[in-house]
Amino acid sequence: TGIFSDPTLVAGLLNSLKIAAGTTTLAIIIALPLAVIAANFRFPGKTFFNASVLIPMILPPFVGAIGVRALLGRAGALNAITGWDLDILGDAKYFGVIAVQALSLYPIIFLNTTAALANLDPALDEAAENLGAGWWKRFFRITLPLVRPGIFAGATIVFIWSFTELGTPLMFDYYQVTPVQIFYGLKEVETSTRP
User: Fold this and answer.
1) Rounded distance, CA 176 to CA 110, Å?
2) Which of 67, 28, 18 is nearest to 167 (CA)?
3) Residue 178 in contact with residue 16, Cβ under 8 Å?
């Protein structure tokens, strides 16, 4: 009950939940079309496409945040090249955290959705097509309901990861989130117990 009586901690918890929900939603929006393309279409360079989609998994989200800060921060490359004095990250910290985390974590949903699409019985789609259903109708009435468990599994991992992510909010100087509050709380305890 002590946590919920402190408005700062409650605000941090709500901000963390909003960031996790926003990150998960944006990651689904990015991953779902890519998974459909990877699973249902054949085209030249498909192997390269599948590999390049997974590149963000190599680095954790906070590394992407460092790169975005180096490009768009007040002392970033954009201001250095143009001579402007814009503070893009200062005005959009919340959305910056969501965007960077979604761009880093969408491969988790992509992998789960691609696996779910690969396990679908093509006879269902063919039967609906023979009955005159168009691609969009087949996708929303047959494919999407059947792959929903795969999307949900990936989305759950992304939600938990983005809720507990410490590095990205720190890189964006966005301190009103639970992981950062816990981090600074532990630092205070450490300094107060030091002789």
Assistant:
1) 30
2) 67
3) yes
Tokens of 128: 């609906």
In the numeric block, the tokens 């639970």 are attached to 178
Mean pLDDT by 10 residues, the chain (195 residues): 76 93 96 92 90 88 80 75 72 83 94 92 83 85 91 96 90 87 81 68
At 125, list the tokens: 């789609």
Instruction: Specify the amino acid at residue 84.
Output: W
Look up the pTM and report it: 0.85
CA trace torsion 157, 163, 169, 171 (10° rounding): -30
Angle between the N-to-C axes of helices 93-118 and 7-40, in degrees from 0 to 180, rounded to the nearest 10: 40
CA-to-CA distance for 28 and 102, rounded, in angstroms?
9
Give the C-alpha separation, 32 to 110, whole Å.
Answer: 7
| Nearest residue to 165 (alpha-carbon basis) of 174, 4, 185 | 174
